[in-house]
Design brief:
- The chain is an alpha+beta fold.
- It contains 2 helices and 9 strands, in the order E-H-E-H-E-E-E-E-E-E-E.
- It has one domain.
- The protein has a 5-stranded antiparallel sheet. Strands 4-9 form a two-stranded antiparallel ribbon.
- The chain is globular.
């Protein structure tokens, strides 16, 4: 995953080049799942296709590798609750600054989409969620 939302791009550019304060998300961010990944909408911060219902919730993540060459990855598993209803075809992932609503910071498509059904557990193993700033 390496796409930044316009929100994050503008905030970082203003912070670095215009000395405008940027409030960071704190010690953690939230990882969410997207159905029907649409980069253009996510770039603009439009979040219309996030998985929902059936015990779905974004996962708070605090454990990332120290960045090296502009890249990092999760250092522990990111495990979503067992789906208690169908979540649908999940094809993308977001990193946001809040457990719900908030701002999309980063987004990307999954290598392989997955149809999450009632009773399934969706998980990123440690090291599976790679983030690269290029």
């Amino acid at each position: 995953m390496s796409a930044m939302s316009t929100y994050l791009e503008n905030a970082l550019a203003s912070h670095v080049l215009r000395n405008t304060a940027f409030t960071t998300p704190g010690t953690s961010v939230y990882v969410g799942l997207i159905k029907f990944y649409e980069a253009t909408k996510l770039e603009a911060g439009t979040l219309t296709q996030e998985a929902s219902g059936g015990s779905y919730a974004r996962i708070q993540v605090t454990a990332w590798d120290a960045p090296s060459d502009g890249a990092t990855q999760n250092t522990s598993a990111i495990t979503f609750a067992t789906a208690s209803a169908d979540w649908g075809n999940v094809s993308g992932v977001i990193v946001a600054d809040a457990a719900s609503a908030g701002n999309v910071l980063l987004h990307g498509s999954l290598t392989t989409a997955r149809d999450v059904k009632n009773g399934d557990v969706f998980k990123f193993n440690a090291g599976d969620l790679d983030i690269t700033f290029a």
